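Z., the sequence and structure:
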Amino acid sequence: MVAPRPRVSVILPTYNRRKVLPRAIDSVMLQDEPDWELIIVDDCSTDDTASFLQSLTDPRIRVIALPRNLGVSGARNAGLEAAQADVVAFLDSDDVYLQGRLSAPLAVFARWPDVVCTLSSAIKHNRNGSEQVARLPDAIFESKVFGWGLICALFDAAGTNITVRRSAAMAVGGFQPNLPFVEAEDFMLRISRQGRGCLLSAVLWEKFRSADAMSRRWQDAGAGLLYYAQAHPEYLTRHRKVATYFATKLLVYEFRDGSLVTFQRHLRAFRRAGLISGNIKQICRDHWDVKRYRRAISSPAALASMTGPPDSWM
C-alpha cells in the first residue's frame, strides 16, 4: 500500500550550521500542522552536521547528503526534486518557523486555486541585538502587480518566507544555480508570472543574522544586481528608475563602508550594463523618486492598495 503524500514539504538546505540547525528543525516539529515532510539537504558540511542528522528519528524527516557543494540554490533544487507534496515551503537553517507557518499558507492555497505563492510578516533579529517586525497586509495581488512588488522590493522574498505550489516551482526551473545574493528574489519574480501572489499579515517566521550571512558581501550583491539586469530586462526598460535606485543604493553602502575598490569596479560595471545612465542630476532624481515612493507605500494599508508602478514612470 502506497503511503499518502504529506500536505506540505519543507526544504531546509544547510552548510556548516550545526549549532543552529536543531533550532530550525524543532520549529518545524512544533507546528500546528502535523502533516509535513522535512527534507534536510546537507550541502557537504564539514562540521559535525552529518552525525547530528543521523541521530534524527522522526519518520517525517528525510536527509539528502549532496556529493558536492552546490550552494543554496542547488541544495534547494535538490529538495524540490525530492519533494512529495503539492505545496513546498522553504526554511533557512539559521531561521525559525513560528506557529502557523505551514497551516496559514495551506489554507490560502486550499481557498484560492490560482494563488501560486505566499509571503508573510516576520520578526527580524539584527546583529546589534534589536529586533523589528516586518509587517505585511493581508492581500492577494494579480500576477503583474505582485511581480511589481518584487521588482521594487516592497516585501521580503527571503528563503524562509517562501511557500509555493510545487508545480509552479518546477515550471520555472527552480532556483538559478550559482546566483549570489538575490536567488530568492529571482525565483519569486519568475514564480509570480505563474499566477497570483498572496501576502499574509500573520507573523510566521523569525530571521536571524548569522556571521556567515551574505548581506554584507558587496561583491556578491553587485553580481546579483548585474544578473538581475540581464535576466529581467524590464529593469532596463519599463523600470529603469528602479534599476538606478538599487545600483546607487549599493554604491553608497560601499562608499560609506570604505570598500572603494569594489565601489569603483561596480560603478563602471553598472554604467556598462545600463543600470546607471545620464548625468548626475538625473541619476539623483531617479534615486529619490524611487526612495520617496518606497517610503510612501511602506505601510501595510498603502501596500495593500498597490496597483503597480506610478504611471509617470512607465
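The beta strands are 8-14, 36-42, 61-65, 87-90, 96-97, 115-125, 131-134, 139-141, 163-165, 196-207. The CA atoms of residues 100 and 273 lie 43 Å apart.

Let me know what you think.
H.
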